[in-house]
Specification:
Rossmann fold; about 10% strand; 2 domains; alpha/beta
């Protein structure tokens, strides 16, 4: 029996990866560090903003000091919020799935995005206040595939629901990237991978793989 379900954000709830890519390019191209969408998919997807900027600088043999990094993260956040202001569509079925699972067990969000990027979209989707626990890039020092974000999510769920028996093997993560799968598995969770961002042959480390969440409900999640 599942005791909780943890959803990733980008690539699971909304297709914001192309929007993040556009925002990164707005900041990096003037610095001569722009890259293609294929490079983003191969290298940067799954990173939080800090690690993405560090990797971009490292790719040209440069390092970045903390103050400059903070400035670039702020510029990218501003660009991202301009881009999403016209609206973002969720993946088919995912909002109904979150709301149906919420009726049975706690739901959490574990994302490598910044909280300031997530909150406006949750508001657009009428999901503000739905998640019992939210862990973002603001809460951990390192991004997926490191398990830190999932470990913290499980810890906060356990603290909020002490009688629920929140052991990692009873919790399901819903992910879309190899980095996300590695992070959740590293924390001891089962993982349902959805092929929104990668083909199934790239997601083989997940417990189960689905092409869409449109026809999922809580009972089907319990079978993962």
């Amino acid at each position: 029996m599942l005791t909780a379900v943890i959803f990733d954000f980008d690539g699971v709830i909304v297709d914001t990866e192309p929007l993040h890519y556009r925002a990164f390019q707005e900041v990096l191209k003037p610095l001569g560090m722009g890259y293609t969408w294929d490079v983003y998919l191969a290298t940067y997807i799954g990173f939080d903003d800090r690690d993405a900027f560090r990797a971009a600088f490292a790719s040209v043999g440069q390092t970045i000091n903390p103050e400059h990094l903070g400035d670039l993260i702020e510029l990218k956040a501003q660009a991202f919020n301009r881009i999403i202001s016209s609206g973002v569509e969720p993946y088919p079925g995912v909002v109904n799935l979150i709301l149906s699972v919420k009726k049975v067990v706690p739901v959490a969000l574990c994302s490598g995005a910044l909280r300031c990027d997530i909150d406006p979209i949750l508001e657009q989707l009428s999901l503000s206040g739905t998640f019992d626990v939210i862990v973002t890039a603001d809460d951990v020092p390192i991004s997926k595939p490191d398990p830190a974000s999932y470990l913290l999510t499980v810890q906060r769920l356990s603290e909020k629901f002490p009688a629920a028996g929140m052991i990692p093997s009873s919790i399901l993560a819903v992910e879309d990237t190899p980095a996300g799968i590695a992070s959740a598995k590293g924390a001891g969770l089962r993982v349902l991978a959805v092929t929104n961002s990668y083909p199934a042959d790239k997601l083989g480390n997940a417990s189960s793989i689905a092409s869409s969440l449109e026809n999922f409900d809580f009972q089907r999640l319990c079978q993962v």
